[in-house]
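Sample 3 of the quickstart, ligand EPZ:
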Amino acid sequence: MDSIVVTGGGPLQGEIPIAGAKNACLALMPATLLSEEPLTLTNAPRLSDIKTMTTLLQSLGAEATSLQDGQVLAMSSHDLTSSRADYDIVRKMRASNLVLGPLIARMGHAEVSLPGGCAIGARPMDLHIFGLEKLGAEIELSEGYLHAKAPGGLKGAQIDLDFASVGATENIVMAATLAKGTTVLTNAAREPEIVDLVRCLRAMGAEIDGEGTSRIEIQGVDRLGGATHQVVADRIELGTYMLAPAIAGGEVECLGGRMELVESFVGKLNEAGIEVEETKRGLKVTHTNGRPKAIDVTTEPFPGFPTDLQAQMMAMLCTAEGSSQLNETIFENRFMHAPELTRMGAEIEVQGGMATVTGVDKLRGAPVMATDLRASISLILAGLAAEGETVVSRVYHLDRGYEHVVRKLRGVGAQIERVKA
Ligand code: EPZ
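Result:
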C-alpha cells in the first residue's frame, strides 16, 4: 500500500484546479439506467470510486466508457442484462445503492446488496426503502440483498422524509421520473449534487421542479432520452484545498470554485480570520497573519456546514488560537482522524459527536494512518505546516475522492511525494 510523505514547509503560493464533483458523478452515472439513449458526462473526476461505478454499470449490461483520460464518461443502457448489484461491489462503495431506484423504474425489479457497515457509521437505507415503497415498489430484505419489484410500474406519491438524506433523495427522484403521475418529495436534501442531478434528468426529458429546496415535485413521463451533461465542480475538494493556505499560510486560488457551493464553509473561514475573495476564475484564499482564530462548527445538511469538510476543518483548528468545538451531527463515528492528529501533537478531546480542539502553536510530523476518505486528506493538510515529516499510510482511501493530490499540492509549493509500497 502506497504512502504519502509531506514535509512541513512555508507559505503556499499559486493555483489549484478543482475537478468535477465525485458525489454528483456517482448519482449522475446511475441515471443512464433510466434511458435507452446515450448519456455522456463531461468534467468527470478521475477517481477509483468512478471506476467502481463504471464496473457496476457494466455488470448490469450498460455500456460505460471512460474517454479523454477519464474526463468524459460515455454511457448507454440500451440493453440491460441484469438488475443485480453484487455485495462485492456495493460493500466497497455505498453509492452503488444509487442503482436501486433507476433499476426498479426501468426494469420493474432489482436485487441490490445492502452496503454493510462503513467506517463512519451504520448508514442504513430505511429512508430509501420508505420512499421507493411509497412509489409502489415491493421491497424485502433476504440474505443481505434488497429484493425489489414493481410489476405494474411505479406510481407518483406524496413522500415526506424524516431526514434530508442525500442518497434517499437521489434514489426517489430518479425512480419518480418514470412513475405514473405526480410525486411530491418534502424534506428533500438540498445539496448542489442534487441540483446537478436534476439538471441532467431535465436535459434527458424529466419534468422536475424545486431542486435545491426542501420540496421537489416530479411529473412522471413515459420515457427519458439521452443528454450530455457537465458535472458540477466538487465543493468538498474545493473546501479541502481552500484550507491548505489557511493551515500553511500564503495565497492559493482554487480554479472553478464558486461561492454558492461553499457559503457556510466560507463563513466559518472568515470567522477564523481567513480571507476569501471570489475572482473571475474561482475562489482565492489568503492567510499571511499568524494562526487562525478558534471557532465552533456544527455539521448540518446543505446549506449548513458540510460533514465532508469536518475532518479537514479540524486539521486547521489544531493550530488555531484558542479552543474550538466541532459538533458532528450527520454521522455517528466521524472523528477517526482525531487520534491520528493527536499523534502529531494536536490536543483533541472527543465525547460522542462533539470534539473539543485546543489549538497548539505547531504540530509535529509523525507516521499516521488514513482511516476513511476525508480523514486521509485532513492528515495531509495537517502535515503541510507540521515540523518535519508526516507519513500517511493506506492512501487508497485518498484515491477514492481526490485526483492528483500530490500534483495539485506540489503546484502551490508543498513538499509532498507519493511513495510506492
Ligand atoms: C452522501 O452520502 C455522500 N456520498 C456522503 O459523502 C456525505 O457525507 C453524505 O451524503 C452527507 O452529506 C455520496 O453522495 C456518494 P445521507 P449518503 O443519506 O447519501 C442516515 C464522502 O466523503 N441515513 O445524507 O449516504 C445516514 O446513516 C461521502 O464523499 C439513514 O439513517 O448520506 C447518515 O447518518 C461520505 N437512513 C445520515 O443519514 C437512510 O436511509 C446522512 O446520510 C439514509 C441515511
